């Protein structure tokens, strides 16, 4: 019988990789939902290093200073799923990251944020950038954790619509003057 012992290294080699992180903003809405301050996201095609670097690219394209990496990780997962379905996607992602390193004259991810953004602006018409931006914009802004971060309650239809739930709760604007409203017979 073969030895079935599976150590961490062999597990990670066989499963693409893991994207790991820790929640930094302990009192935010996302931390309140999380069962733990640490998180992990399994990837099937991309390795951990590629996932971490893509997370940074996505964070630079869609900067939200107080949004947790855990929210951005869903976009990395979406890119990993796309790469699982189409090997050319994984190739585009790896070549794009290598191109950033080449342009930076070393490790792009070690540069200051303004330099990273500058290199991303230089490649914004490249297929790599278009792929990352296109997949990320959908996965980043359409998940429950992002909703919590921005204070969005989500779709209203499943909750009965807006007429009886939030239609008239405009608390951030002053009430309009009476003469601004049309006369409607009672």
From TrEMBL:
Q: Domain of life, per the record?
A: Bacteria
Name recorded for this polypeptide: Tat (Twin-arginine translocation) pathway signal sequence
What is the originating organism of this protein? Answer: Pseudomonas abietaniphila
């Amino acid at each position: 019988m073969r030895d079935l012992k599976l150590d961490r290294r062999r597990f990670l080699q066989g499963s693409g990789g893991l994207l790991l992180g820790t929640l930094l903003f302990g009192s935010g809405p996302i931390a309140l939902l999380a069962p733990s301050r640490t998180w992990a996201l399994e990837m099937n095609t991309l390795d951990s290093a590629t996932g971490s670097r893509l997370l940074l690219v996505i964070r630079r394209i869609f900067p939200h200073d107080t949004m947790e990496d855990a929210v951005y990780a869903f976009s990395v997962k979406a890119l990993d799923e796309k790469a699982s379905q189409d090997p050319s996607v994984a190739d585009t992602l790896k070549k794009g990251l290598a191109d950033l390193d080449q342009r930076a004259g070393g490790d792009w991810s070690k540069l200051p944020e303004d330099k990273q953004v500058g290199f991303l602006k230089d490649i914004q018409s490249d297929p790599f950038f278009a792929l990352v931006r296109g997949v990320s914009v959908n996965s980043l802004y359409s998940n429950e954790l992002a909703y919590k971060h921005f204070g969005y309650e989500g779709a209203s239809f499943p909750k009965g619509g807006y007429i009886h739930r939030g239609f008239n709760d405009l608390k951030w604007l002053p009430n309009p003057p009476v003469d601004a409203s049309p006369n409607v017979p009672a």
